[in-house]
Write a structure and sequence with these properties.
heterodimer; A: 285 residues; mainly alpha; MetI-like fold; 11 helices; B: 287 residues; alpha/beta; Rossmann fold; six-stranded mixed sheet; four-stranded antiparallel sheet; 10 strands; 37% helix; 23% strand; globular
Amino acid sequence: MTRSGAWKSVMNVLMFSLTGLCTLFTIGTLLFILGYLVSHGASALNWAFFTKLPVPVGEIGGGMANAIVGSAKVLLLATLIGVPIGFLGGVYLNEYAGAAAAFVIRYATDLLNGVPSIVIGIVVYTLVVHPMGHFSTVSGGVALGIMMIPIAVRSTEEFLHAVPNSLREAATALGASKWKTIVTVVVPAAITGIITGTMLDLARVAGETAPLLFTALNNQFWSAGWSHPTATLPVMIFAYAIAPYDDWHRQAWAAGFVLLMFVLAINITARFILSRASYAPRGMV
Amino acid sequence: MDPSSGDLAKAVDARTPLPGNHSPADTPGGIGSDQMKVQTMKLKASNVNFFYGGFHALHEINLQFSANKITALIGPSGCGKSTFLRSLNRLHETIRGARLEGTIVLDNENILAMNASALRRRVGMVFQRPNPFPKSIFDNIAYGPEINGMGNHQHVAELVEQSLIRAALWEEVKDKLHQSAYGLSGGQQQRLCIARALAVNPEVLLLDEPCSALDPIGTAKIEELLFTLKDQCTIVIVTHNMQQAARVADYTGFFLMGKLIEFDDTKKIYTTPGKKETEDYITGRFG
């Protein structure tokens, strides 16, 4: 009796410590990465980093203005492609699909979400880059746009699902047709959540590198246009980190820091907006 | 709140007596033939059967609703009274697997053959829990007129004011029309929902236990409101509260296990019910 009691209390302490340590490790990892980025990249982080082009090998200084603008263009295009498709798909999934169809759509969406990003890169390379004959900003946007679709579908579905059915009934009982109910009541009630979902989706693909390696490629100069290769922050980090120059390494760290800050800022803003939403699923705020 | 038939009878006695009584067994229409001569039937359900998938929820319901009267549908939970109410504006069609058989006629027009939106504009509904849209008070009321294309902005604004006056809410909200409807109390929200339903000028107003989420003061205000509204439309109210049915309704129908057991003048139902089940229910022996 006492032996088993002692055993129980040892196990209790052990499990408590183990789970606690793993939690600490999780939080610690984020803090460690942040600290590491700051300590290695802070010295290269200056005004020039945001305004200047990369300098030729051997020169010290320069910046990544072209990569920042390039990332912005690629992400803008990705949003324009991924969000409308994902949003309307999510509306279909929650408002129109029957139980069996919904199961299939959800399953397919989750599988698409699980497709390795490099595979999406190859597909876009074959379908867009190859026919165009060269790497381009557009193809990078298409690749990231495809990656945004599954999350946009599922987050739209989740936020629409959180809108109480009583609101749909109220609109229907006033003579609103199904699509009118969706457009005038359901989507407006969920729009804050849908927007934040989109922001988080954007934050997720912002750091994707693999699909950009053979779509947007890279560029040491300003991109000549949407149909030409462009530098992006993630690819620039890759290129600078494997180069044998200390100054480039520092700039790679700085770029990593900027990217992380961008992602964190989007996350925090999104969660702030979400906390003020009318209807949100539990656990999202 | 243990209802006794004595209290209920008193509540009924306070009201003007109504013409002759018959049980539904005597006349398939539900209401005695002598009444039919003097009253216009607004809505008439014949041989209504209702199914949720394989579940037979309503059996051969025959019921008529007199114009400009209040009819209450009472019965224990799950007896089918709400299901029946929702079939009167075809709201059941939004539920997958729900199926209605029989005919329901609104002013000699089969509602099953009508355009659903047009029907619901004529047969408004108020729900169990107040369900205002997450919009301003004004936009809540303006919603119906706007989606139904009832005139310009000026006209809609007039309809909003009229509807709020009709729902006895105008004085309380006239200075905050552009604030969120969620800032109102539960009782005010429910009157807002009534105003929202009234804004499209429905001929019939269906209320599905409209007071079940309200306190006694909120309930009293809604009941008072129903009396003033019955000149303007035909009212059908589903309620769990038998005193409420006794206070507000001209006619009462008693549902049990998907069947209409008895339909008659409210006074008759509460004083000398024709069926044993009705008596058992209103004297609180079950349900």
